[in-house]
Amino acid sequence: MVKAVQGRLGAIRLVLGLMALMLAASAFLLITAQPARAAETPTPAPSASSAEAAQSIGVWVRVAADKSNVAGVSLTITGPKKFSVTVVTGADGKVTVPIDNPGTYKVTLDKKTIPAGSGAVLGDNPREVQVSAQNQGVPAYYLLGAAATTPTPGSSNKPSPGSSGGTSFGNLALQRVATGLIFGLLLALASIGVSLIYGTTGLNNFAHGELVTFGGLIGYIISGTLHLPGWLGIIAALFFGGVFGYLQDLGLWKPLRKRGVGLIPLMIVSIGFSLALRYIFQFIFGPGLLVTPNDNGSFLTLGPIHLRFTDVSSPIICIVVLLLVAFALLRTRIGKATRAVADNRSLAAATGINVERVIRIVWVAGGALAGLSGALIGYYQPVNWETGASILLLIFAAVTLGGLGTAFGALIGSLVIGLLVDLSTLFIPSNMKFVAALAVMIIILIFRPQGILGRRDRIG
Fold this sequence. Notes:
Layout: H1 2-32, E1 55-63, E2 74-79, E3 83-88, E4 94-99, E5 103-109, E6 120-122, E7 127-131, E8 138-145, H2 169-201, H3 208-225, H4 230-258, H5 263-285, E9 300-302, E10 305-307, H6 309-331, H7 333-343, H8 345-350, H9 355-377, H10 387-390, H11 392-402, H12 407-423, H13 433-447
Parallel strand pairs: 1-8
Antiparallel strand pairs: 1-4, 2-3, 2-5, 5-7, 6-8, 9-10
C-alpha cells in the first residue's frame, strides 16, 4: 500500500514538474516577445502604401562589389489568387510591395532593365518568398555583379558552372568550402551537446533542436525586438540556453531517470516534448520568419570569397568556445568526470563521482552550446518556430558520423556534414543538399559503423 502511494506521488510530482517547466518557458518568452508578434524586419522600410497592408514584400537591388543601390530595375511579383504586379526600384534600390494574402510569391527581376555596368544577377532569378500573416517587408534581395558573394552557410543555391555569371567553377567551389566550414562550426556547437548528453545518459534527445530554436528566438528578441547590440543577444542566448537545459533536466529527465524509465520510452518522451515546445514557439511568435538585424556589407575579401562581418566573427566565436570545451574535457576535474561517466557510468559512480551532478552540468552545457548555435544561425537566415527541427537530422548525422558519445567526433562529423551540404549544391539542386549529406553518411557508416572516432563497443 505504501509503495503504491509513493508511486502515485512520484507520478504526480513528475507531471507537476513538467507543467512547471512548460509554463516557465512559455511565460518567459511570452513576456519578452510581445513586440515580436508583428515579425518586423529591419530593411527595407515599408512605404506609406504598404503600411495599410497586413503583409508586404521588400525588394532591394544592389551591386555586390561596392554595395551601391541600383535604381530603375523592373520586378514582377506573382502569387496566390492571380496576384500580379510590376514595380520599379527607387533611388535607394528598394521597393516595398503590399500583399493582400499570405502565401508563396515569386519575384522575377527583368534582366533587360539592369543598368549597363551593374553586372548580372547573382543567385536565383526568379526566386520564391514565403509571406505569412502580419509579415511586413519580407526580404527579396538581389545582388548584381561579375563575382558572387558568399551565400548563407547551409543554404547555398545550385550554381551553373560555365554560365554567364562570370564566376568560374573553381571560385564557386572555394566559396562553398568557406560557407561549408562556417556552417559546420555552427552545427558543431549543437552536435557536441547532443553527443555529451548521449554519452552520459544514453538518451537520443530529439528535443535538442528546440534548444537551438530557443537560442535563435532569444537572439531575435534582444537584437530584433529590443534593438540591443548583437553581442548582447549572443550572450543572452548562451545564458538562457543553459538555464533552459538545467530546467529540462530538473523538471523532466531527472525524475524519469529516478523512476528507471528505459531509453526507448525516454526517446519517445523527447519526441513528444519536442513537438510541444515547437508549437509553444509557434503560438508565441507566430508562423512567420523573424529577421535578426545584420550588416550585409562586405567586411573581408579573400580572392573570390566575400565575407560579411558575421562570416568572420561567428567562426571565431565557435572556435574559441570549442577550444574552451576541449580544455574543459581534457584538463578539468569535471571534464575528466564527464569522460569517466561516458565511458562507464557504474564504474564512475563506484569511484566516488557524483553521476547526477555530472549529468546536470552536461545538460546545462549542452543547452548553452545549442542556444549559442541558434543565436549565430539567426544572423545567417531568418529564424522561426521550427529552425532547430529543420537541422535536427544534420545534428544527428554529425554525431553518428563522428562517433556516438564522443565530443571530438561530433566536431569532426559536423565539419564533414557542413562541407558536404554546401559542396553538393555544385552538382544537385539546393533543396536536395541535406539528402546528399545523409546519403554520404550512410555510405561511410557501412564501412565504419562506429563512426570516425567512435568505438565498436558503443554500437547498439
